[in-house]
Specification:
Blueprint (H helix, E strand, L loop, with lengths): L12 H14 L9 E4 L3 H4 L5 H8 L4 E4 L1 H9 L4 H18 L2 H9 L1
Parallel strand pairs: 1-2
Length: 111
Amino acid sequence: MLFYKRLESTTTSKDIYNKLKNYLDGNDIPMKNITSCAADGAPNMMGKKNGCLKLMKDANPEMIIVHCVIHKEDLVTKNISPVLNEVLHAVIKCVNTIKVSAKCERLQVIL
């Protein structure tokens, strides 16, 4: 993640693009340095005519646009077989247990 900024009113593609462009300009980061960007498929982000990523691609034709892998995984898991779903939930439970362990918490404080 490059930065986090609140959108004051609407979340149109132009609003999002302008917020990003203002941040990049304010920090002397050229748009050509943005090599790739991922989004969840929302029309204001992925729209082919005037989505935010289209506006970014117009400013930097070399930029690679991808559909977010995590969002794709979420879409796949909605139609997953019961056996794989059980395995997935077991893995998630293990990861969450590790994340809340005291040792992990101490490491997060250090970092």
